[in-house]
## 1
Amino acid sequence: MVKTDKYTSLLIILSILLLFLDFFHLLNVVKNPLESVIIPVKQEVYNAKMALSNFTAILWQYSKFNSLAQNEQRLIKENNDLSLQIQLLQEENNSVRKQLDAPLPADFHYIPALVVGISRYMEISVGENAGVKPGMTVVDGANLIGKVVSVTLLRSRVMLLNDPDMSLPAKTSRGVVGRVTGQSSQTIIFERVLQKDSLFLNDQVVTTGEENLPPNLILGKIVHITVNDTDPYKRAKIEPVINLQNLKTVFVISTL
Amino acid sequence: MKYFLFIFIFLSLLIESALYPLPLSLIFAFMVSLHLNQKEASVIVFTEGLLLDLFSFRVFGTDSLIFLLLLVFLSLFRQKMHAGRALYRLILLFAACLIYSLFFYKIFSTGYIITAILSILGIFIYMERFFPVSLTDKRLSL
């Protein structure tokens, strides 16, 4: 028979008790005030990490001190936004109905949120008190960041596109439909594309508007295509347009 | 030296919950369970688990329970593990990290594994160097 230290046994019982109480949200009275302490701590750590990564980037590119990298990011973002606009204008010319389906309509309500940290999930500094609910979409401009998966009073957890549990319908800028899924290697894959449909490198992949997601949010661009003739579907690797590690603020869409 | 250990554990909590999903807390819990006496270790891993739950948005008690069960499991083989080669401990620690990561973080890539191995080695060497174990220190019996 195993003799376990009485403190250990006591703490195991206490853990099970806490687990049980928190499962039924009975510990929120204690947890909510603690969260208001945790958020600034994590925020500072995240900011310090961003400052450190910026500092090392500057060291590496000292000769190009005028933030070429930042300009490039801005131009890529603008270029993607403009490409999306062109695509939308073409669609609008073809059909008045599609005019109503333009992405990010003005009646959407955006909740600004500070990024508190990124581990497996992104953690943001708004919760139930700001009206955030699980399932809501998180964006940065026209770029999809992810979906809210859990919420407390003061913070929310956002599942990112590269998460293995993420799966959402998507289409390319040429109208080829499929599904975007995250992988355990933290890459994003556009899959379930029929063999007859054509995929092209650098094509933008956007949301279709199904499954409670707004339409035409940018997911990324195709950087690698895998075709296997014996497979009924083909797949492509997607590279996100924005660098999540540089994000300080995101927006939660609350009207859906 | 224990103050440094507490600081390292707290830093590992912050890194794991805010910067990179690497099971640093589990590595510390594993090593603390092997290198400190059970009474001290149980209080440390319990507190560490609660803080990780709070910082990582998990149900309160999840990680503290996992760490305490790990402690009990390791206590059963404490003598044998310290008497045996360090490699066995490292392999067991790596396996524990892998299972924990696949369950909570679902990440499996070359870069991730290399980072995990380096972290394991770093913490392992730190604990072996500053918290050596006397094999006569028998806390549990079968």
## 2
Amino acid sequence: MTSPKVDLLLAEDNPSDAELILESLAGLRERVFAVEDGVEALDFLFARGDFADRAHVALPRVVVLDVKLPKIGGFDVLRELRADPRTQSLPIVMLTSSNLESDIARGYALGANSYVQKPVDFDRFRETVRLLGFYWLTTNEPPPVSLSRAEGT
Amino acid sequence: MIQPIDSVERVTELATSMSEAFLGALLGLAPDGTILYWNAGAEELFGYAGSEVIGKSVLDTIVPPEHVDEKRRWLAAALGGGSALYESVRRRKDGLQICVDVAVKVARDRDGNEYLLLNERDITRVKYQRDAQVLQTRFREVLEAAPDAIVLVDSSGRITLVNSEAERLFGYTRGELLGQLVEELVPTRFHGNHPSHRANYFREPQTRPMGIGLELSGRRKDGTEFPVEISLSPLSIENSTLAMAAIRDVSPRKKIEEALKTANRELEAFTYSVSHDLRAPIRQIDGFARILSEQLGPEIDEKVAHYLRRIQDGAGHMGRLVDDLLNLAKIGRQDLKPRLVGLTTVARDAMTDIEADTTGREIRWQLDPLPTIECDPGLMKVVFTNLLSNAVKYTRSRTAAVVHIGCAVRHGEPTIFVRDNGVGFDMKYADKLFGVFQRLHRAEEFEGTGVGLATVQRIVHKHGGQIWADAIRDQGASFYFTLNPRAAERTHGAV
């Protein structure tokens, strides 16, 4: 069901926020897949459970994680992804409402590639998300396939 | 005098015949001090078994080094009619010193060999009680006037004097404490090291707190423990030095500290939740209102456009409130990083930032030289930014706004002020100025969240300073503040 190639995996439990993010990503929307909790995010990336059919599909170019996610929190998802050789180089962006220094520090300590605070003001939010999508899906060079899952399983 | 081979046997015989008449410790010695007989009472009093000491000199066992003149006493006893009574000090096997009454008697066996029979009785407690009487008449008034429990201890670790507060705090009567080892008041788990700490103190007695950085506990008679703070000072009386321990029960303070910690943890959790969860719905309200107005396009009904703008304004204001409150909370928790800072530079930085936002307005800035003060430069920038932007905001109706930043000396302290010629405020409400969410002007007149001056006050207080304001309605306002980070360390550092 999700077999088509996905370039951006969005893990966001708040449906309104997910909608606003997708809205802001505008032209990139078809390349985005959204999940609602940490378990789904990990299943998607490791091709498990509902996403077993993705075993031979390449990893996305970037994963965008909210910090507060149900079941498995954003930081724990990040930790698991960094601990697995298949996903340890996968670009991960933390996208969250929190601008607490402790959260930012934790994100980087666990190996996030970027930490972005969701601005409260929608104009700035839209601009931020647009830039984020544009940067990671077009400007940034993803890690070579040999570093990704294709070679793993 | 030469001892026959069977002297042990003979003195034992002599001693046993007397033993009935004596209670307590009985020792039989050769005139040179070699122990020949040691009864069960002696074993109990000194902690040595007979087998450990028989054949050894009393001078190497129970007589402390500073009391070696004991030997002369025996000789005197021997010369003067064959018996004597005197007070002395003994060291037990565990190192503890005790006071004893000694009754010495010269005995002879059938061959005319002389032995010394010593009957010793522990009078430590009695002696301390007696000595305390003397001390008490001298120090009573000072001790009873002190708010703390006071316990005086001598170099052997025994309590020589206490005040009523000590009796109350530890639940013992004075009689029970005098002559007792001070370790009685210390929880058992600290007994191991306490005597050596005590010895160290008497080696270099000085006024100081006990156990710096450690959590100290006292032990009551009923075995319960309580947190204490103890300060020690040496007290010289006649030829000896006593340690005076002033002991304060800090359980009430500990309780408050605990409550404060809990409150802080809760506040932190609350802040975290606000930071994470409260922002999202605000953004969603703003976002969907914006998308809606875009969907409706340019032909949007005037009223609909107005309502949508109202929704977005509300969301925007709420967003600023949340940010300002989080900022205020953050400043409250953050540690001061003070260094010497030239305030002129800080004020000028804030001024430059604000000038960028006030193009088109005529503002006459006057910045006098400000002192160099020990303070946190980042936080001081927040202070100036808030005060200056307030000055700019409330002079908006003036064709020529004047903002004057200067320093005056008040009560010998440099006092920084920010003065404007704006709308001022009614001094009747001056006490509300620095409260969170307190606003003296309607939001339609002057925008704002009501958190700015509360933040400024928090920073000034963190620096041990004061902040106040005066104003005349329609003629301008002046804000004054002082900084004293050293005082701040003293008052805030403890918690």
